[in-house]
Amino acid sequence: MLSNSKLFSGQLEATIHRAFLRGANLRRWLCQQDCPQVVRDCKTLFEKIYHAKPDDDLHIAEIWHTQNEQVGPAVPTPDELRPLVSAKHVQLRARYRAHKVIYARRTAHHGNSLVLFYPGGQTKMQPAPGSIEHIYSDPVDGGVRFAVRRFLPIQVNGPDPYTQWDDFPAKLWSSDQSTELEAVEVDSVRAHFACYPLSEDQIVVLDLCKVSWISLWYILGFNMFMADMIFIYCQTLYHHQ
Amino acid sequence: MSSPRVLARLRQVIQGTILPTWATSPRPKFGSADAGTPKADDWRSIISIHLPITLISLYGLGSSLKDDPAFHEILDHTMQLVCAVLVACKRITTPRRISKYRSYMQSYISRLTTIYPGLEYQSIHHLAFHIYDSLKLFGPVHSWWCFPFERLIGLLQRLPQNHKSGKFL
């Protein structure tokens, strides 16, 4: 891919290529054990300089925590988790990454703990809002599950003003939550939701799903199909050389 | 719409809304010089999350201004733009969503000069209808919007070799 300039043909591409490689090598060096500590201390500064907004830093911090979190040994099962986990000890974690999205328990990050989920995995039902209180590994099959505390529905005087527009998926809910936890499969989670406390007893729940439930699987399937096609195409090129 | 009351409530909503880390939250002092120039991502968060919540809480059913037809018309008109943005930014595009985008945008733009007398149509209003064509031709906006290219431009601008002919790393 050469530029149109006859004088500096290829220099744009070379510049981008070398800048990318230098940045990658620097980031790699900062993560290596043999990097001097005084240089590694600059890592935090680099991340603050080269990321535009504090929120980006927060998201990168969450990704880092998720990737580097060690799932510790099993701990005594918390009392509120006993109805869901019969074993005396259970493995807990603060964060879990699924489908490129980070979920966290409420004590780790409130925003990442707020999820809309399908009760019982029934995707034809209306999703319910809840907060993830625990992320645990089921002792029976080892699968990761969320222990979610549901928000309660609310009775409003008259129609809910936030449901007036079909394509703005917001609704009023009570700020009170159920006293019991529910076990929710990771695949039963629809998406995060934005939560605005409208008053002491009311919250606005805004669905942040960017795709529909069925469409998410379509995307995953389509991406796998495209990956296969590209692989086969590359193999064909290789054999023809 | 730019009244101090709306702006104050908008800032309250920005500060009070709890979001996941992947969702952009604008600066709490949005609209003031201290907050800096809002980025395109900030505007997207404002129009899709914070502004609708703000306006519905001020002008929607249940508020003190719910019976004022003028304010309710402003709210409904703004929600046409909100819904157009939300529909257009979905990761999956369907003929129904494309058609909805055009309907929302048509409703929003056709009422602009009525609700805001003195406002003139700009070329950007015409361009908004071509997004309908692009959705039909190219699919979801994430495949063809300019944000990755803008980020690359920003990266190139920060290189020390910028503005120096014939130089590269």
Report helical residue fraction of chain B. Answer: 55-70%
DSSP strand (E) fraction of chain A?
Answer: 25-35%
Spans where pLDDT lies below 50 across 5 or more residues of chain A: 52-56, 213-241
Tell me the structural class of chain B. Answer: mainly alpha
Quantity of strands of chain A, as a count: 11
Can you summarize the main beta sheet of chain B?
A: none
Q: Major β-sheet of chain A, in short? A: 9 strands, antiparallel
Beta strands of chain B, count: 0
Largest interface here, residues on each chain? Answer: A-B, 50 and 42 residues
Low-pLDDT regions of chain B: none
Backbone structural class of chain A = alpha+beta
- N- and C-termini, Cα separation of chain B: 49 Å
The termini of chain A sit apart by 21 Å
The multimeric state of the shown protein is heterodimer
How would you describe the overall organization of this protein?
The complex is a heterodimer of chains A (241) and B (169). Chain A is of the alpha+beta class and 241 residues long. Chain A has helices spanning 11-31, 37-40, 42-49, 54-68, 110-113, 213-240; strands spanning 75-76, 89-93, 95-98, 101-104, 114-117, 128-137, 144-151, 170-174, 177-185, 189-197, 202-207. In chain A, the strands form 2 sheets. In chain A, strands 1, 2, 5, 6, 7, 8, 9, 10 and 11 form a 9-stranded antiparallel sheet that branches. Chain A has a two-stranded antiparallel ribbon with strand order 3-4. In chain A, strand 3 and strand 4 (101-104) form a beta hairpin. The longest helix of chain A is centred in the last third of the chain and has 28 residues, at 213-240. The radius of gyration of chain A is 24 Å and the shape is globular. The model of chain A is unreliable at 52-56 and 213-241 (pLDDT under 50). Chain B has 7 helices and no strands. The longest helix of chain B is centred in the N-terminal third of the chain and has 20 residues, at 40-59. In chain B, helix 2 (40-59) runs antiparallel to helix 3 (69-88). In chain B, 24% of the residues are buried. The termini of chain B are far apart. Chain B has helices spanning 4-16, 40-59, 69-88, 95-110, 112-115, 123-138, 147-157. By secondary structure, chain B is mainly α. The chains are: A alpha+beta (241), B mainly alpha (169). Chains A and B meet through helix 1, helix 4, helix 5, strand 10 and helix 6 of A and helix 2, helix 3 and helix 7 of B.
